[in-house]
Specification:
single chain; alpha+beta; six-stranded antiparallel sheet; 36% helix; 21% strand
Length: 318
């Protein structure tokens, strides 16, 4: 079984090397990782894997040696000695926020927001894609089947399967969190894992320094509003709005991204969707109990089915 490391795809490391030589490697950047599912929602998954990956990974002498031996088609070294020396001295300073695993994320809402030095975010891009985007893709596929069958009640949560730290283990983990039955999980063990299919969800990474893409503003937080236990809308906030928007409000005006209409939502409490995963490069997320994450997924399916997802308000705070 193939194991994962930051060099599964060397392209992000090559991009990071470019920033080392053009002097932009320390430039502060804001990135989004967005999953565009075929379905009306996605189930966030993989944040615990990312935190565990950062706990384990270092640019060890063996990894640096392996990078130094990588060659291009002309037989030239892919990575220079100067850049490899930089990696040996590197200390992660990236902040990462992600939706809790098992949480429902709606179209246009990122799975992950990352902020920090440009070269470090680029070095993490492969981990973001394989650990979070791909896990969310797997979990969503399973959850959609239960959504369509209106099957979200379990009297007894099945025991979590063993999940080795490799591609197949992550697939089993994600499908369990998404609500897969025992037969489906056994099937995952016997079937090889697949690379992400772009037709089932597109990857987009938004970089602050490139300006606004497709007339979109960089969203950094979503406040999910509730009346008692019922979700009544998602308010999208920029970094500036998050700092100024009062947390004592019981009503908020929003511009719905689908209709363009401005409406007032009244609520009794709210939840910030994006929670810290890395703080200055250090994992901030304790090891999760994945049976609880599965229960969260099923509760989300039940709650949002009753909320009439096709009419559910979401958009910018105004």
């Amino acid at each position: 079984m193939q194991k994962f490391n930051w060099l599964t795809d060397p392209t992000p490391a090559l991009k990071a090397q470019e920033t080392w030589y053009n002097g932009t490697y320390q430039k502060e950047a804001l990135f989004h990782l967005v999953y565009h599912p075929r379905h009306p929602f996605a189930i966030a998954c993989g944040a615990g894997l990312l935190a565990e990956h950062i706990r384990r990974f270092r640019f060890s002498p063996d990894i640096i040696t392996g990078m130094g031996q990588m060659l291009d088609e002309q037989g030239h070294n892919l990575f220079t000695e100067s850049f490899l020396n930089h990696l040996q001295r590197l200390r992660l300073r990236v902040n990462v926020w992600a939706a809790p695993e098992g949480m429902m994320v709606l179209p246009g809402e990122p799975l992950l927001v990352a902020k920090g030095p440009l070269d470090q975010i680029l070095l993490l891009e492969t981990a973001f894609i394989y650990l979070i985007w791909r896990s969310s893709q797997w979990a969503t596929r399973v959850a959609v089947e239960r959504w369509n069958a209106r099957d979200w009640v379990e009297e007894d949560t099945p025991l979590a399967p063993a999940t080795p730290h490799n591609f197949d283990g992550w697939k089993i983990r994600a499908e369990y969190i998404g609500g897969a039955g025992a037969d489906e999980i056994i099937g995952s063990i016997s079937q090889p894992s697949r690379l992400p299919d772009p037709e089932e969800g597109l990857i987009r990474v938004w970089e602050q320094d490139k300006g606004i893409i497709n007339n979109e503003i960089p969203l950094t937080q979503v406040r999910r509003l509730y009346k008692s236990q019922e979700a009544v809308g998602d308010i999208w906030l920029t970094e500036e709005l998050e700092e100024t928007a009062s947390v004592s409000r019981t009503s908020a005006r929003m511009s719905d991204i689908r209709t363009g209409k401005t409406e007032t939502l009244r609520f009794t409490r709210f939840q910030n969707l994006y929670q810290p995963v890395l703080v200055k490069g250090h994992p901030a997320l304790p090891p999760p109990r994945i049976s609880y994450l599965r229960q969260r997924t099923l509760k989300q399916l039940e709650a949002f089915h009753e909320a009439k997802l096709d009419e559910y308000p979401r958009g910018w705070f105004v």
